[in-house]
Amino acid sequence: MALPPSRLSHTTLPQLPTMVRGAAKAQAQAKAAKNAPKEAKSTIPGRAAALKLTCHICRTPAPSYKTLVIHYEAKHPKETVPSEASLTS
Ligand SMILES: [Zn+2]
User: Fold this and answer.
1) Cα(67) to centroid of ligand 1, in Å?
2) Domain layout of the chain by residue ranges
3) For a tag site, which of 2, 27, 42, 79 has the least CB within 10 Å?
4) Which residues in the chain show pLDDT less than 70?
5) How far apart are the CA of 47 and the centre of ligand 1, in A?
6) pLDDT for 36-60, tens place per residue?
């Protein structure tokens, strides 16, 4: 009450940063660990939705166009890889 606000923050600041940084780091790590399983779960429907690309030659499903290109190069090296637009549209 007797101390002005500016002087109060001056006296509390030197102690806080180290304490807050350590706590914030631990909290961030705990938060990241908590969020990790959620994010992993959320990718499952996303992956299923992305499985719409299929090889037109052997009908092997590909999760992405990149994978399909790799598949073409591996399984059908003599075939021309179709364009991404022709596969997704
Ligand atoms: Zn194929």
Assistant:
1) 11
2) 8-48, 51-89
3) 2
4) 1-20, 35-51, 89
5) 19
6) 665 555 555 555 454 678 999 999 9
